[in-house]
């Protein structure tokens, strides 16, 4: 609070109008309370999220990660993926055919029968009852009743399948080791191999819409499709680190995470990728954004990172609000500053710039 007032004095003296950023770090470390490797993350809104990881770890937050609470999973097997099919109902999958589900936001997790001992790597639901799981040795499982029954589908490959994504009830893509890409247009009744142009492992896949998709993998590999996964082309990542997770908030804006704390960001659909400062050398295995600016990345040794700026490190700025672009949306800011000597509190409002950096301005003569 004192720093805020001092900045006001230094920059503008008695002008009475002041603007400065509140949060300068793009990615901020959070306390997970565990040392387990964290492999999956899913948020149902900006505040409410769940993380899963090794040793049966399930963590939940309802305050944007300020605090994380352990949930009882009922297993010591590793979890690798999680998906919320409704705000309170989720499915988590992992090693040795492990499937756990909750219908009460994780207060209790119950076991479902997968019918396999293969490691299960990721799960995706297209609605509250229809879902697909992929895993080791070409395993694909499908449910139409929320997981009461999981039915094997024929993948046509013995390669490990690491990730799956559906753009509609019928159209989906699965990716895996050796550059394998499978595509379905009938909900998984048949899966057809697509040419990825690589023999490297593909670790994750995400589609921003029905046509534009991105897959990431070993040695900095990023490939992209603009026709729903029929054709794929390589993009320049600028890194040789293995990349493990990808999430897009629009067809242009996306984030990738990987080994040694690598975080890459694009605002051009992957035409160019730029590095962001993660502040860690831990491997990052998954990333999830609940809106354009608000995201969480998870990784080795219980590492959790949070951003409210799309990963951008906000610059220090000083602006007269009267010069801000037309249409700038202001919102109230919860803190108040009370001046010495019983003077009434300063009146403050906040806004976000195009990068998601939050700024405030104060209506009062700063050097009074």
Helical stretch tally: 1
From the alpha carbons, calculate the radius of gyration and give it in angstroms. Answer: 23 Å
Number of strands: 32
Strand proportion = 35-45%
Mean pLDDT over the full residue set: 87
* Share of helix, binned: under 10%
Side-by-side strand order of the widest sheet? 1-32-31-30
Task: Report how far apart the termini are.
Answer: 16 Å
Going by helix content, strand content and strand pairing, the class is mainly beta
Uncertain regions spanning at least 5 consecutive residues: 1-23, 332-346, 363-368
Q: What coarse outline follows from CA principal-axis ratios?
A: globular
Main beta sheet, described? 4 strands, antiparallel
Mind explaining what this structure looks like?
With 368 residues, the chain is mainly β. Helix content is 3%, strand content 39%. It has 1 helix and 32 strands. The protein has a 4-stranded antiparallel sheet with strand order 1-32-31-30. The chain has a 4-stranded antiparallel sheet with strand order 2-29-28-27, with no helix packed on it. A hairpin with a 4-residue loop joins β16 (172-176) and β17. 47% of the residues are buried. The model is unreliable at 1-23, 332-346 and 363-368 (pLDDT under 50).
